[in-house]
Specification:
By secondary structure, the protein is α/β, with parallel strands linked by helices. Helix content is 47%, strand content 12%.
């Protein structure tokens, strides 16, 4: 499965009644596809999945799949720290027609490397969909080590990993030692270019909500050998990336989208809106992209 190169971890729009805003979801999907996004990850962390009910996740995934209508791959965030529940959601997502699933490392219960191997392998074997692992110890406390990733890469339908450890040595070894068709995506917006230089495939991005075209241009420039141009783009968007993560994600990116005229609404508790000072900071840095 080719998930493409620039994937957006899409926000979930909410209306004033704290319900999913499906009309605005249409506008958001069209906007993303028109502005550099080559794949959509739905109901992930940036989509505020911890605050979505099971029913909301299924309803939203069904809507996204139908509205995207094959224009780009749709990947569902079906991972959790409960293996059985992840299997149920994965199988339901498959029935809805998603193109792949993303499985985050199990949070809170702190499994061993063997426990994580069995967790991911068991979920992968419950579906025919291609699977992208998601290694993000900053949120989950546990991290997949190299040997575990290599074992999991031997599972037929585990085809990719979103790497958000920030550990370029680990990422380099994953790229080197996994099969050539195993894709490694940056899970950190600011590390896209370094990971491309190590042989990575692309990115699962938050900042692509705002600088998707620029990220796409960076990937294309790098892969066509225009490394100086890719570096220039990275340097230009680096402050934007930093500003979009100046508050708990996706608070700042939802604010920036609203300034661009996309009414994606608020964040759900326990996240809270930006302060006036935080809004001013985002405006100062990101404003030229509004």
């Amino acid at each position: 499965m080719d998930f493409n190169q620039v994937l957006t971890a899409m926000v979930t729009p909410f209306n004033d009644q704290d319900e999913i805003n499906y009309d605005e979801t249409k506008r958001l999907i069209d906007y993303l596809i028109d502005n550099g996004t080559e794949g959509i990850v739905a109901v992930g962390t940036t989509g505020e999945s911890p605050t979505l009910s099971h029913e909301e996740k299924l309803s939203f995934l069904k809507f996204v799949v139908e509205y995207v209508n094959g224009r780009v791959p749709v990947i569902a965030g079906t991972g959790s720290n409960n293996t059985k529940q992840s299997i149920v959601l994965t199988q339901e997502a498959e029935e809805l027609g998603v193109d792949g699933i993303m499985l985050v490392t199990p949070y809170y219960n702190k499994p061993s490397q063997e426990g994580m191997y069995q967790h991911f392998k068991t979920i992968a074997e419950s579906t025919s969909l291609p699977v992208m692992l998601y290694n993000i110890p900053g949120r989950t406390v546990v991290r997949l080590e190299l040997d575990t990733v290599l074992r999991l890469a031997e599972v037929k339908n585990i085809v990719a990993i979103k790497e958000a450890t920030g550990d370029l040595d680990l990422i380099s070894q994953i790229i080197k030692e996994t099969p050539d068709d195993f894709a490694v995506y940056s899970g950190d917006d600011n590390l896209l270019l370094p990971i491309l230089s190590l042989g990575g495939t692309g990115i699962v991005s938050v900042a692509s909500h705002i600088v998707g075209n620029e990220m796409n241009d960076m990937v294309q420039s790098f892969k066509s050998g225009e490394h100086a141009q890719a570096t220039k783009i990275q340097q230009e968007i680096a402050p934007v990336i930093k500003a979009l993560f100046s508050a708990p994600n996706p608070t700042a990116v939802k604010y920036a989208l609203s300034k661009k005229g996309l009414n994606v609404g608020h964040v759900r508790l326990p996240l809270i809106a930006l302060t006036e000072a935080e809004m001013t900071h985002v405006d100062d840095v990101v404003g030229r992209y509004y």
